[in-house]
Design a protein that fits this description.
By secondary structure, chain A is α+β, with helices and mostly antiparallel strands. Chain A folds into two domains: 3-82, Orthogonal Bundle (Arc Repressor Mutant, subunit A), CATH 1.10.10; 88-196, Beta Polymerase, domain 2, CATH 3.30.460. Helices cover 51% and strands 19% of the residues of chain A. The mean pLDDT of chain A is 88. Chain B is mostly helical. Chain B has a two-stranded antiparallel sheet. The model of chain B has no long low-confidence stretch (mean pLDDT 95). Classes of the chains: A alpha+beta, B mainly alpha. Chains A and B meet through helix 8, strand 6 and helix 10 of A and helix 5 and helix 6 of B.
Amino acid sequence: MHQSLASTLLPGYRRRVLGLLLLRPEEALHGREIARRTGLPPGTLTRELKRLADVGLLKREKRGNQQVYSADTSCPVFNEVAGILRKTSGLADVLAEALAPAAQQLRAAFVFGSMAQGREIGASDVDLLLIGDIGFAEAVNLLYPAQATLGREVNPKVFTAVEFSTKVAVEPFLRDVLAKPKVFLIGNEHDLAELAGHQS
Amino acid sequence: MTLQNLLGISLDAVAPERTQVARMLAAVERNLADTRLAGLSAETRFDAGYKAIMQLAMLALYANGYRTLTSRPGHHQTAIQTLTLTVALAPEQVRVLDALRNQRNKADYLGDLVPDSTVNECVASATALNAHVRAWLQSNKPELA
């Protein structure tokens, strides 16, 4: 769903490198580690890293006798590019792909909390709300591979449509989630409003 | 990773005793009974289930001659994640228990709501882990069972 948008805006290698580094601005990684985590060939990756550092999206520093790369948060478009990645390949694509086998069972799925608001810190996990007919254990095991890709714990809140519509009116937790920014993986704001019981 | 090389890092060595195992199993049964009490809120049933899971994970370590160093942060995580080593629990089950731990933290400290699906999974996981640990004790540590 998000793949075409992400791949149209950013070609494959660049998207994977930026997705890794810009969404973890506190981490500085050396080339081999970046190659391992993105699955890209080291030769191509070196040219890509150099190009991104030359335009100021990445910082290049020497640590011992190794070059390490990290996001340059002072780059004038850092927030905007990180925002695009957060909503596409960096986060949403990985999670949407992990949930794909259960897509038919889900009415809505979205990221909420610090990751959706761009307030994440190094240790933040990914808060996910799923509405549909899926068990908690099934959701946890489907999402498990995404934890390694994202380098963060994924914490799913799993509601049936009935439980969600019943509790949304009375539970401050759900009202708070509804009022704050979300990154949708399945469904949209309109679907969510319908599930919450007030037609938008 | 082996249990041995966590000694001094997150684990401490103990000499397990049968009477202590019996006490811990009885505590687990009390908590499992509470998960089935009709008058309790879903969240309290979740808490009772999680407590039973934690007691079983601690018992699994104890039966192998270890306990968590409670002076170090993350001893719940250690007890759960070592279940593959202590009682040969399948990794898929450990992932679910670890996810329950995360839900419990967020419910306790941030006021997150625990959905019914998660309460039910917590009770089911606690019940299944109880059966698994008891069977493991019978076949691997009959002197403690």
